[in-house]
């Protein structure tokens, strides 16, 4: 009993840090979200007006939809591409370590560096992508990648997918490493092809890795800010203006601390709700 009490005592510093730097700021943000506070002066209570404004104006509902759609694109693509590369590297041990490091390198780079590099590549005049298409005789495929509202969101999403494919690949490679070799040997002895072994033997055993990858990438993508801001600043015509950009703009651009707090709480609830649903669905899938 004394040993158990000692263990609880050792958790006090961690709990204190959690309360001080996580729970307390959230409480303050919730409280501020019901005011019209502008950073200075008195914080006037406005009730639910900030939240009513968010859910009754098309502008903010559109930004919410853009955030969700962007997350669907990025998370689904990262899951597929990461799983593809992991499955390939799992079957090629000779180049696995080198390729894993090469794939993971973009994820270690700064968002600012990646953003400006891809801003140059997407440039409509002398950008690397359009120049390459021109040199390959595919000039008709040249696009204004970041200036066209129909393409901008997908261009930003592609940049994030390129950046974090190595991250999801590393998660899936760890999952492959946990699969007993006897299972693959049994499949080969039964005459199963590489695809059949992956589909019916390996993929079901990768359930925990899929859960971890999907939840982590979803949380990270829902609150993404750097790449959309650097590449498009929310344009063109609001095509890439997500909740995160709206929060920063209201907070530091217009000094609407109260309204920005309400947007932040909406984003927090969205992230927690999606993470909870995903965790339940994916955990249920693992148990079956």
UniProtKB/TrEMBL annotation:
GO terms for cellular component: plasma membrane. One of its GO terms (biological process) is transmembrane transport. The chain crosses the membrane at residues 7-27, 68-89, 101-121, 151-179, 200-222, 257-277. Residues 64-278 form the ABC transmembrane type-1 domain. It is a multi-pass membrane protein. It is found in: Cell membrane. The keyword Isomerase does not apply. Its main location: membrane. Keywords: Cell membrane, Membrane, Transmembrane, Transmembrane helix, Transport. The keyword Transferase does not apply. Belongs to the binding-protein-dependent transport system permease family. This is Carbohydrate ABC transporter membrane protein 1, CUT1 family. The lineage of its organism: Bacteria, Pseudomonadati, Pseudomonadota, Alphaproteobacteria, Rhodobacterales.
